Amino acid sequence: MATVMPATGIRRASAKRCRTDPAMGDAIRWQPSPNFGPRRDGLTPELIVIHYTAMSSAEAALARLCDPAAEVSAHYLIAGDGRVWQMVEEMQRAWHAGAGRWGGQGDVNSRSVGIELDNDGTYPFSDPQMRALEGLLAGIMDRWRIGPAGLIGHSDMAPDRKFDPGPRFDWVRLARQGLAVWPGQDACGEGDFIADAARFGYDPEYGADAVLAAFRARFRPFATGPLCAADTAAMQDLAHRFGVDRIGNSA
Ligand SMILES: [Zn+2]
């Protein structure tokens, strides 16, 4: 599965071309990774998974994502200054998600497009990086008919072991543009937090504490302490409006 493409170094100048999204033109640099395989069971992308690289630079992350020994990859990498590299064709299965589940389904790699952002979670994601991400998301969502509920963080699908993209990632900015979901301002009610979490997409098998931590990192980044009414109300609203049965056809 990893032998189709030759091992690569960084050959930016000769490799620069657009592979997938003509609208972004030269904004996307093609830097092939050998770390991919075919999507399994005829699956196509229904999710987009956001990551941060937690590396010293975008170039260091690019080298690792293209290193056959690392056995990791993503479809796209976005630098802090807005440069975008594509490493794996969207039709192919990149190795970014690992073990985890969302919406009652495993093998997230076969169901998703993976996007890495050059950040380690300790500082804000830059405006050029977010603008590049927004352009990329719009194209991916259009090509694969993915609605805003299909955009998730790595921590959402693997809350027991992953923290990216973390509480500094600006989900609200994406939600305002219809690229992500966000709970209603006046959500209220006394739902069953873990049941609603499962309906929204989280796997309850990870346990209430891990799911609450992942949920808060994304939707209530300044919340602390035990589960409270605001958590329950927000999760109930998300489950009601964006439950897993609606992924792929939510507008
Ligand atoms: Zn990740």
Automatic annotation (TrEMBL):
It catalyses: Hydrolyzes the link between N-acetylmuramoyl residues and L-amino acid residues in certain cell-wall glycopeptides. Its EC number is 3.5.1.28. SMART domains: Ami_2 (SM00644). GO terms for biological process: cell wall organization; peptidoglycan catabolic process; peptidoglycan turnover. GO terms for molecular function: N-acetylmuramoyl-L-alanine amidase activity. The keyword Hydrolase applies. CDD domains: PGRP (cd06583). Keywords: Cell wall biogenesis/degradation, Hydrolase. InterPro entries: Amidase/PGRP_sf (IPR036505), Amidase_domain (IPR002502), NAMLAA_amidase_2 (IPR051206). Residues 33-166 form the N-acetylmuramoyl-L-alanine amidase domain. PANTHER family: N-ACETYLMURAMOYL-L-ALANINE AMIDASE AMID. This is N-acetylmuramoyl-L-alanine amidase. The lineage of its organism: Bacteria, Pseudomonadati, Pseudomonadota, Alphaproteobacteria, Rhodobacterales.
